[in-house]
Input
Amino acid sequence: MVDKTGLILGIIVAGIIAAFAAVNVSYTLDLIFFLAFYAIAALSLNLEYGYAGLSNFGKVGFIAVGAYTAGVLSAAYGVPFPLCLIAAAIAAAAVGAFIAIPTVKLREDYLGMSTIIIGEMIRILLRNTPTNSVWGGVFGLRGIKPPFDFITNTFERTIAYVGLSVVLFFFTYILLERWGNSPLGRVLKSIRDDELASKSIGKFTYRYKLLALTLGSALAGLAGALYAFYFLYLNPDTFLPLVTFLIWVMVIIGGMANNAGVVLGTAIVILINRLTQIAKDYIHLPLEPNYFQAMLVGLLIILFLMFRPQGLVPEKPVRTPAWRVLEERAPKEIDYLKEGEGGEENE
Amino acid sequence: MSEDYILKVEHVRKTFGGIVALDDVVMGVRRGTMTALIGPNGSGKTTLFNVIAGVYKPDRGKVYFDGHDITGMPPEKIYHLGLVRTFQIPRMFKGMTVYENVLTAARNNPGESYAKSLIRSIWKRAELGIANKAVDTMKLLKILHIAKNLSSAISGGQMKLVELARGLMSDPKMLLLDEPAAGVNPTLAHEIFKFLRHLRDERGMSMLIIEHRLDILFDYVDYVYVMHRGRIVAEGTPEEVSENPVVVEIYLGEA
Output
């Protein structure tokens, strides 16, 4: 599932993270949390875009729905942490389904336009909630109860929380791998590649797309809830379209419809961000370093779309037991080539 | 409506803006026959296919398949009744291999649901059955050796065969074939038609075939409809049609 390029890059990424860990453990824990958070979001986009071909440019909006659902439930109603995570996923799924019903019938470009607007609408709605309510409006949402508060040592508590985030990342990864390497994975790819042809072989494409966006949003909501309980504070203006674009870059450079590639892409984008943040203390540029970072990511997209559109780790065939049947039977059954009449099929 | 017709098209009309693409089309396909639909470019053949297959809704008229009214029914539902179509320009799932293209076309794979796909033991048996059927079908169509190729990286003729293989995976009662031998060398074209005849004789499959290469087509089909400017202008056996002065005039007139 990972080829040589992917393996080498994966080792480099792991090496950099290990180097960080040797220097500063707290910083590395923060880095690992962000890797897990973004990887869940990027994998959810991979389900929607990489497999089903749905260009969701409103990913950040569904993350925000999850984050605020968890935040409000915890801050205002004292709902226990695990229930908040589940509620966040359900709420984001509901919003996802509600939005998917009218939009997944649209052509790819129009779906992209609608979803980017929906993502922004969610942020603006949250921004305009009353500042004296639990939502907090532009002042943000405060008072989220810290998870694992039975652990008194804050450092240990952070380790536990980051550990949980990594566990949820693995859960998401396994889920995506199961879906991707099953007959379902083939159906989703068939819709992505040619929806009319997919309908013509009897696939109820509307239902599949609806569920892809709903389940993708549920995972984004889960990521949002993890974010809320990590910072214990939410501000609507952290959920800018830029977050969506970063997630897209992760999927594009990692490799669409390849989960391992997407995780690699996530790690690369985040490490570029972190390393440039560190570098800006040492290198003096004639321009604002934050813009330089955005330029770097922009350049990365252009270079990838031009020279390696398949991403670092290209898509692989859907792995199911069917391949074993082909491996066993094909060598025995291809006798028509030897008869000398079927050989010139190529025109 | 007579029982021995598997497909019946009754007074279908379809317009696009001011253009009348189909005008009061009445035709049918007898069970277990290869029926051809011919006519010059732009005469409405593919539009009629799209109306039958559920891509377009007709403005007027009815389409019946195997006793069901399928007028305006979406393509995915029509497929499950046993009517499968192929396209004039093959539509591959280009990010997938030939093998996956064929596997995807199977009917009732339990592993295609979001919930059941998570548990391999539920769908493994069905998947193995489908895999064997896919290998059989590819062998029959002589595309087994390209099974691992990406479906975007094969020749046009091979794409036609992959589409046909996809169509056969569901054991359809009837095939709608839009130019199955277009862009294919004459040897392979004859092989394709021999194969289709084999399907009719051995499996009792019915077919409606659009084809421009009449020299090849007329050797195989049982009945022919001729379209011109959105209307059926002639019908009959290949012999009758090729001697029909109206048909000769249409073809020479357009040429």
DSSP finds 13 helices and no strands in chain A. Residues 25-51 of chain A form the longest helix (27 residues).
